[in-house]
Design a protein that fits this description.
Helices cover about 40% and strands about 25% of the residues. By secondary structure, it is α+β, with helices and mostly antiparallel strands. It has 2 domains: about 1-160 and about 295-300, Ribosomal Protein S5, domain 2; about 165-295, Alpha-Beta Plaits (2-Layer Sandwich). The longest helix is centred in the first third of the chain and has 21 residues, at about 50-70. The N and C termini lie close together (about 10 Å). About 40% of the residues are buried.
């Protein structure tokens, strides 16, 4: 059986803290087969440290399931494709979902959605900060998550028909990106700042729920702090060829400097914008890749032919 889980982004910004967006640009693709041992086979090139982290996730999931269920069948997971690591696209979250789903299915364990996601969350070293990634990749679409509920809850938002996406992905990990960005948030905010953030969140949700591009643009533009932009690698250089009125706004991943550009198909030519981005990246030698993409559809399985 083939298990596929899409990439996701958890946007940077206080009022974006509980939003997760599934993105079809990349997918974790894993083949699950019955075996004499629980093991991983890597059919793709990957750094040994990343292989070690992924192996530990599988061990944690096996241990969690063994404590609550009688696991009689073991599984070999062959990693056929994976989401770029360390760039804020939910790679490890998607792998944890695939492992947990595969082991449960092989052993006829009927986990609820939230049980599966809680086991996957507990298997991750960054557990507690991953619910937006987990729920977006598992369910697909756009999710608004309350991670403080017991268990965590979500509202699933269907993407507007007019929404088009271009994903800008760094070609290499940016050292200490999260630490640099979070310096801005680890301080006391003024009343005016909190008011503006709350207002921008209301506009953001109105735009998504009511298919309102103008409100979505207002929410996104108000939330991006000018003094954060300088901490996002190549941000200004990347968006130089794009006119302000051509796009709704951006989501910037808080776990890695990937940038999701949002456009309204009724007012922008995505092919033209995409070409200008590619030309700009090539001419300036910016270490990013641009990918036209769509909102992801969540976990899916296929029987190997």
């Amino acid at each position: 059986m083939i298990i596929e889980v899409p990439s996701s982004i958890s946007p940077l910004g206080i009022s974006f803290g509980n939003i997760g967006i599934s993105i079809e640009a990349f997918r974790t693709v894993v083949k699950a087969s019955l075996s004499d041992n629980v093991e991983i086979k890597f059919d793709v090139s990957m750094h040994k440290d990343d292989k070690s982290v992924i192996s530990s996730i599988l061990s944690n999931i096996w241990r969690s399931l063994s404590e609550g269920y009688n696991l009689k069948k073991k599984v070999r997971f062959s990693v056929k494709d994976y989401i770029p690591l360390h760039v804020g696209l939910g790679s490890l979250e998607s792998i944890a979902i695939a492992f947990c789903y595969g082991l449960a299915l092989a052993n006829d364990i009927e986990l609820t959605d939230i049980e599966l996601l809680m086991i996957a969350n507990d298997a991750l070293t960054s557990k507690g900060r991953t619910w937006d990634h987990l729920m977006a990749s598992y369910y697909g679409g756009i999710v608004w998550v309350n991670p403080n509920a017991e268990p965590p809850t979500l509202i699933k938002i269907d993407p507007p028909d007019w929404l088009e996406l271009i994903l800008l992905v760094p070609k290499q990990r940016q050292a200490k990106y999260l630490e640099k960005v979070m310096e801005h948030f680890e301080r006391k905010f003024s009343y005016d700042e909190i008011y503006n953030l709350t207002s921008s969140l209301a506009s953001l949700m109105q735009g998504l729920l009511n298919d309102d591009p103008a409100s979505l643009k207002e929410g996104l533009r108000d939330n991006i702090f000018k003094n954060i932009i300088g901490k996002i690698p190549y941000y200004m250089e990347l968006l130089t060829p794009i006119k302000h009125e051509e796009y709704i706004g951006v989501f910037i991943s808080r776990f890695g400097p990937s940038i999701l550009l949002l456009l309204d198909e009724t007012s922008a030519d995505i092919d033209d914008v995409y070409k200008r981005l590619l030309d700009n990246i090539s001419q300036k030698g910016i270490p990013y890749t641009a990918v036209k993409t769509t909102i992801g559809g969540g976990l899916c399985t296929k029987h190997e032919t």
